[in-house]
Write a structure and sequence with these properties.
globular; 2% strand; mainly alpha; 242 residues; single chain
Length: 242
């Protein structure tokens, strides 16, 4: 089931790359919705599940919350390192920088697939909720993978190849979880770590980019409504499945 659902991430990533070649004025709405879905999954589903699965404390703080903060900081560190490298080496638009950044996106997408598989080990409802968040933000992943690869002077065929690799990575990651079962407590730790990284992506990448695309007041309101709708949808899903 996890592999089948991960195919949605495959298709959404390709859709993001296709959109990168033909940018439309509706991208801000898609990104706004994606940010809301990710926020809802982290706050309303991932964190409660992580806290329930990993019930140990570290210096008086639930271990899942410690890892949640660690996941946020780790994602921030990786993003800053990539940005610093691009700043140092990107003046000449060297293709290697674009390929390195694209490869980092592929690795991130593989971890998304593992998160889908791990969530399905908890239960079908949890798996669907995590998959929705991953599929939603994989549009942006596909868009960014193609864009950044091309930005640094790589040929279109290289950018397309990196896009296809990024699209296939979640399927491979989800398939890998069929080979092993993650212990419940370890799963709680992983979900806490993944939740922190997912929140960072939503708060620092997806939502700012969505509102950057909405230059006028009316589109900005529409983007905000899409974000609220995404979070409310996850609340509805959690309420019905609970």
């Amino acid at each position: 089931m996890a592999v089948f659902v991960a195919l949605g991430a495959f298709l959404m990533t390709l859709a993001g790359g296709w959109t990168a070649q033909r940018v439309t004025d509706r991208r801000h709405l898609v990104l706004g919705l994606a940010g809301g879905l990710m926020l809802g999954v982290v706050g309303l589903d991932l964190l409660p599940e992580a806290l329930d699965a990993a019930d140990t404390d570290v210096f008086g703080v639930p271990a899942a919350l410690v890892l949640f903060v660690a996941g946020f900081l780790l994602a921030h560190l990786v993003q800053r390192l990539l940005a610093a490298r691009a700043g140092l080496e990107g003046h000449g638009r060297t293709p290697e920088v674009g390929m390195s950044a694209g490869a980092a996106m592929v690795g991130h997408s593989a971890m998304d697939g593992i998160a889908i598989g791990a969530a399905f080990q908890v239960g079908g409802d949890m798996g669907v909720a995590v998959a929705l968040a991953v599929i939603a933000h994989d549009f942006a992943d596909g868009f960014n993978t193609y864009t950044i690869t091309r930005l640094y002077g790589n040929a279109r065929r290289r950018a397309v190849a990196m896009l296809v690799a990024d699209a296939a990575a979640p399927v491979a990651g989800a398939a890998s979880t069929l080979l092993f079962t993650i212990p419940e407590e370890l799963l709680g730790y992983y979900l806490g770590l993944f939740g922190g990284a997912l929140l960072y992506l939503a708060a620092s990448e997806i939502l700012p980019e969505a509102h950057h695309q909405a230059h006028h007041l009316r589109p900005a309101r529409s983007t905000l409504l899409c974000t609220v709708a995404g979070a409310a949808f996850i609340w509805l899903v959690v309420g019905i499945s609970g």
